[in-house]
Specification:
It contains nine helices and ten strands. With 252 residues, the protein is an alpha/beta fold. The strands form two sheets. The chain has a six-stranded mixed β-sheet with strand order 6-7-8-3-9-10, sandwiched between helices. It has a four-stranded antiparallel β-sheet with strand order 2-1-4-5. α6 (182-197) links the parallel β7 and β8 (202-205). It starts with 6 loop residues before the first strand and ends with a helix. It binds adenosine-5'-diphosphate. Adenosine-5'-diphosphate binds at residues 16, 19, 21, 39, 41-47.
Length: 252
């Protein structure tokens, strides 16, 4: 059996104009583990996450998820690159800060869009899977509701179910609770905790330090486009680096 990590990133670089946002990121994520990306605002966390799904195109570096990999520093003809990117994207499901649900579609229709329209899966089996996912995120019985009829926390839980409906190898979550009213944060974090407990591979950008300490197998602390510190959850209680210490003292 292979013991390769599920995700491997080497030498990831990205600039927006003169702004060098990622300055050589290396990371690995073992299958079935939860990784949290923490660090000050603007340190590059979201750009790392979006690069895994090629929502941002890195300037250089290799991103591999499972058996799909793209070397962004290497020239490729447009068609080959498009095919590589499509394969890499298919390995992950993304949960955004605000849920991006289709407002004119029901919850169930939102969940079926990717599996049926994009993945061409059979409607009956995709529907059965979607109902099971809604139950898993605590929304059984709400499949005919429209997003506007749900609370922000419920909408975000649909957003999580929608990412899972694609049967990805990894779920990428970009500050999944930061757009929510404080009283709705807990229900969404509870669903993510459940996913971690069930063995989903997760990469989460978050400011929720306590949540990170609870679920993270790996903590990556970013500062100015580099990983300044990495380790297990003990990084959050006993950081070695001054930059991490300062960040934690500001947010805790
Ligand atoms: P974080 O998630 O740690 O807050 P980001 O990855 O969102 O950081 O952003 C890192 C830096 O990149 C910031 O300075 C931000 O302004 C810049 N940036 C992010 N996305 C874009 C973009 N699409 N165009 C220009 N600059 C961007």
């Amino acid at each position: 059996m292979s013991t390769d990590p599920l995700i491997e990133v080497r030498g990831l670089r990205k600039a927006f104009g003169d702004n060098e946002v990622l300055r050589g990121i290396d990371l690995t994520v073992p299958e079935g583990s939860a990784t949290t990306l923490l660090g000050p605002s603007g340190s590059g966390k979201t750009t790392v996450l979006r690069s895994l799904n090629v929502l941002e195109t890195p300037d250089a570096g290799v991103v591999r998820i499972g058996d799909a990999s793209v070397d962004f520093g290497e020239r490729a003809d447009a068609r080959t690159r498009r095919e590589e990117v499509r394969a890499l994207r298919a390995r992950s499901g993304m949960v955004f800060q605000s849920h991006h649900l289709f407002p004119h579609k029901t919850v169930l229709q939102n969940l079926l869009e990717g599996p049926v329209q994009v993945q061409r899966r059979d409607v009956d089996s995709a529907t059965a899977d979607a109902r099971a996912l809604l139950e898993q995120v605590g929304l059984a019985g709400r499949e005919d509701a429209y997003p506007a009829q749900l609370s922000g926390g419920q909408q975000q839980r649909v957003g999580i179910a929608r990412a899972l409906a694609l049967k990805p190898q990894v779920v990428l979550l970009d500050e999944p609770t930061s757009a929510l009213d404080p009283e709705l944060v807990g229900e969404v974090l509870a669903v993510i905790r459940d996913l971690a407990a069930q063995g989903w591979t997760l990469v989460v950008v978050t400011h929720e330090i306590r949540f990170a300490r609870d679920v993270a197998d790996q903590v990556l602390f970013l500062d100015q486009g580099v990983i300044a510190e990495r380790g297990g959850p003990e990084v959050l209680t006993d950081p070695r680096e001054e930059r991490t210490r300062q960040f934690l003292s500001r947010v805790l």
